[in-house]
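TL;DR need structure tokens for one chain.
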Amino acid sequence: MLSALVPVTMIMAQSDITQLMWSDEFDYTGAPDVDKWGYDIGGGGWGNQELQYYTSRSENIKVQDGKMIITALKEDYEGAAYTSARLTTRTKGDWLYGRIEVMAKLPEGRGTWPAIWMLPTDWEYGGWPSSGEIDIMEHRGFDMGTVHATIHTEAYNGAIGTQKGDDIYIPDVHTTFHLYAIEWSEDTIHFYADDERYFSFPNYHTGFERWPFNKRFHLMMNIAVGGTWGGQQGVDDTIFPQTLEIDYVRVYQMFQKQAIHGPAEVYASQEDITYTVNEFEGASYTWSFPQGVTITGGQGTGSVTVNWGENPGTITVLQTYDDVSFTSSLEVSIVMRPGDGPLIIKSNEDEIGNWSIEPGEGNTIEMEYEE
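>> reply
TL;DR here they are.
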């Protein structure tokens, strides 16, 4: 039986191997490192009817005793009744995929709305929410201990009530440091609190409207005051000042047992076929193919080009990083095309005989009846 050529991708399990590619341990004193952090400045509600004015003053943001400290204050400033700070790594730390970790202790009290989140750097799919938002951690002070993980896209977003997310209860968020993290790959975003996974958002490969997370994003950290979500029960002015303390931020590139991308069905003797895995910096790649396949380029890298032979078989790639190795595989079968024949069509009555079909000139075929 003839079958159509269908590209197939194998999704493999993720490993635990990571490589640190960006971090701030806050082992200094004063203002945040200007090579890693910038500020969003101003008021006006920030699209959520928030009540604070963000500044870069030391009263609102500083590094001290090994921690970054964002402080929300009750004070009149530039027409706002509260001040705070919003830190961003935009153009200083922008990533596509990886594990992002933030060790943090949250503020408490009605009206506080701390967030650790990510926005797109280039907005290639358009303004919010089309280019996406990843909320690693959000907390509302009127609901102490309930930590939220959320994603927003064009199809799933808070403006129309379709956002996707989940929450986890951590009773001592305001007295103890906890680790908030995501692991973000081309297939899934997993959300963690203290390494407990409590929400995952998969990529169903149905377009940017549901998955705009194939572009680079940057990290944001802030305390908002009030607002449409954080201020649903008002603001308790007696609680201020309140702080969001960050012990460290670490961003890792993840070394995965990668999927092999490429056709799972080929023609015999087909040329210039490409198979790839996502490359991990510092790793080596050793490809193996069935007998008769010739590698024409790319051996040792994450992308190879081959001329196929006559036989089906298994492609493997050995991925090695430091002293750890993984092998990914893809089964490839051979399909026929006109000219590989002859193709035999049997009549309904075996005694009538067979027709053989051979390619003719151009788009024609030649049929011959055999007794």
